[in-house]
Amino acid sequence: MFDYAGYARQLREELHRIPEIGFDLPKTLAVVHRELEAMGLSYTDKYGPASVVAYIGPENGFTIGLRGDMDALPIQEANDVPYKSTHAGISHACGHDAHTAILLAVAKRLVDNAEKLTCRVKLLFTPAEEYEVPGCMILAQNGIMDDVDCALALHVTPSKDVGHFVITDADMGGNSMGFKVRFYGKSAHAVGQHNGVDAIMMAVQAISAMEIMVAKEIPVSKPKLINIGSIHGGKANNIICDYVEIFGSCRAAEDAVSETMERRIQQICQSVAACNGGRAEYERVKFLPYRVNHPVVYKKLYESIAKRMGEETISKPSARGLGGEDFGYLSRLKPCCYMSFGVRAPGGKSSPVHTTTFDIDPESYAAPIEAMTGFVFDHMDGIEFGG
Fold this sequence. Notes:
Layout: H1 4-17, H2 26-38, E1 43-44, E2 52-56, E3 63-69, H3 96-112, E4 120-126, H4 135-141, E5 150-161, E6 165-166, E7 175-184, H5 199-217, E8 224-233, E9 243-252, H6 255-275, E10 279-288, H7 295-309, E11 314-315, H8 327-331, E12 336-344, H9 366-379
Parallel strand pairs: 3-4, 3-5, 5-12, 6-11
Antiparallel strand pairs: 1-2, 2-4, 6-12, 7-9, 7-10, 8-9
Helix pairs in contact: 1-3, 3-9, 5-6, 7-9
């Protein structure tokens, strides 16, 4: 019997050595193309740059989408493992190499059992989840979900043991918006600062006012946050700075709150700049919508996992976080469910994602492969989603 988990592990370790950023994924795409071709599957990138879409099974009116993201992060890996990243300053610190490898293993299992398959499966290998221009945003705009009836996505979770799943019928994560504000002032010598307009003071006042806005204007019952993670300006200690750029993130669990925060950030920055005799320019850099989990897809996925691996392997999130994920774009279009699967060795410890020491246990692959393929075979004759 073919070892699909071992196949996924081998592919993941190959991909882990060659992490790539955003839409620039030539080596990663070469691996995906190679494996799909070996399975006898044709593929297309018509939905967007560096995307790969392939179909398995007959077109009978019901199509299940399965998504795996492919890109890595600009983080230097610190792990001393045989499959360590060979690309300086880049690593798969969020597990997308595992997602890609697992989706390829699911594809191989479905191809090997194609005579049993009565629906069509659409494989969605997506780029640039971590990038400023989200891959799924472009793919959604280009119609990648038009012929899909429902879809699943998966993600590693180092906070759960191997074989454990976290799924929910509630919305997940938050709207995640990156923004930049550029403050323009007027330079002058420090002893003649009355002749200048201080862009640093504009930025300081605006940052303080934005924090107060979040604390005082939005109800405490509404999950939200703002963070200014970068500020750059000035060249010397005796010159009034004439230009500052800040780079921030604001997150919220509701669309209305996100809209309020963005509107008020613009108002605050422009008003503060004007009061100081300068001006401010606002730019939205990135937006990821929260993920919508359809209750019917959740129920069907829960049943498939429970039937094969037991109800004790499933839990719901202990609380709703505000993490961003570009699968949110796809989940707003068709019924979807997003599942996290454990990658921590039982009784062991695992570094969080987006860290230099993140890695996954080598036994992590079998459970998510079983969950995805089980969902397909259990529901290939269609799902009634309700009104």
